[in-house]
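Dear colleagues,

For the upcoming journal club I promised to circulate an example of a predicted protein-ligand complex. I picked one with fe (ii) ion because it came up in last month's discussion. The inputs are reproduced below in full, followed by the predicted structure.
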Amino acid sequence: MITQTNPDLDRLSVGELAATLPDATAVFRKFKVNFCCRGDIRLADAARQRGLKASELEEALRALEGSDAPPSLSMGTNELIDHILSRFHEVHRRELTELVALARKVEAVHANHPQAPHGLADLLQQMRGELEVYMKKEELILFPAMRRGAGASLDAPIAQMRHDHNDHGEHLRRLEALTNDFTPPGEACRSWQALYTGTAKLSEDLMEHVHLENYVLFPRFQEIPTP
Ligand SMILES: [Fe+2]
């Protein structure tokens, strides 16, 4: 339970708080605090980076008192991997294919608009390619080894996945910049609006996906987690 004097807000990193406090990820999304691949910092530092007062973040987290704990915490490893595959890997594949096509259309139709997202389709296509390679590595090598209960031998592949996650984080920052933080111009057509709604969802999903692996799944196989 989070209370006024709960020491966890000072002691745990942002990533650890997101993994253990009920609905903390929603608060971090709202305040645009990175809790997935750069979540190994304290709350006060994260607030400083975003130009916020630490007390604002702490207050929002305390307001969550009484919410249910993140369901991923109580999942066994097999169940958690199944969840990651069906809720994130499959969804990224399906949505990225649609978003690349939609971005090509919007860029072509609105090519002369001053706020047209030039380069968005290429970025989404690059993300689709890189995510496919990364997800295949997990699906064919890392996850089967985890299901078999492998231990310290997974340090190297986990380190590689964490490195790949950082690359995804860079792509998300470019995505935000290209879409004006997923905000279309007032006169944007339905396709343009749908494109930004879809890219915002992709961004949220990818952050949640990376967070679950970095702070919930991977630490189960590492003695000293190194996000
Ligand atoms: Fe994954």
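Two points we might discuss: Residues 77-109 form the longest helix (33 residues). The radius of gyration is 19 Å.

See you all on Thursday,
B. R.
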